[in-house]
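Reading a protein record of the kind used here takes only a little practice. An example makes this concrete, so a full record is given next.
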Amino acid sequence: MWVVCDASTSGVGAMYGQGADWTNCHPAGFMSRKFKEAQFNYQVFEMETIAILEALLKWEDKLIGRHFKIITDHKSLKFFQRQRKLSGHQAHWAEYLSRFDYEITYIKGKYNKVADCLSHYYSSDQDDELHEERVYVQADSRLDPEGGDLPMGPEQRFAAIHLQEDAASNDSHDVTIAEILGKKVKPLHKTFDNVLDLLKGIQEGYADDKLFTKIMDKPDHFPKFEMTDGLLYLKRSDGESVLCIPQTKFEGKCITGTIINQGHHILGHLGSLKTTQYILKFYWWPTLSKDTRSFCTSCPTCQAIKDLTQRPEGLLHPLPIPTLWQSIGMDFIGPLSKLKLGNNFLWVILCRLTSMVHLHTIKTTTKASELAEIYL
């Protein structure tokens, strides 16, 4: 079984066939898909990977559970299965590909004529020419529902949403790409820096925090931390300093929880990972990632408007309850040296209902028919 794939600047194409060799196999299916606007910005290896994903999604029912070979003219994809450092896109793609039993084979582009022609099927389209939704490449958005179709970070995506809202309310303002990429989300620390009582609560909270107390007692042992105006800062690897937050309360509320709540709200409930990355630009404490994940899991808004990306669980199929010695397990233990009558193995038969055990000493030369007699 062969899946021949290719990507061009306009879309992807693939052929599915069966036979002894891919060059003369019997074709069983053809596919052409057009890239969306965002996907034109993908790198070449991402486009070539999407060509494979689209083919597998289309012929999944024929390929699952069978060994097949993928033909591609992009050489780096040969090493995709052994690649360790994966981007967010690639991690979702690798998880889906792990369902299949496949090999990736590289060929030169001049031989990959069929899939190459199919990938150029929509190359002559005009800019304003639209097609049905099923015609467009959907692999990334299907395998990464949280935003695989948007090659922007969470801050830029947030800015894009609000700029689009501004444009909708003011028709005279036409949003540009520069505005979308240039506008930043409101810095989180600006929300709290002017609250003097809060900063005072943070200063006082250091004394009750076990980790920060050790750092303040022996600052020479912790060169990545520094004190400024009574506040403790951590130097990140990029040279920026972020404020350390102790596990303490301010006006009856946990300070770390207040920061997480504000950051999660500013980003627009984009999930724990993006919220953690956003907060880390301004603040740090040891359990930040864990606390953010717990907060987002219990967020009422997220629970109400977001659906799980996992497939629904199937029905339970419990095993029937056996009667005494109806369902058994058996194993052979050995070789053992101190058994009687020259026997050197122990045959263990277990009742799965009661865990009752029968033990029999046997030899390695005992035949199956003899074991049957012993069992009876």
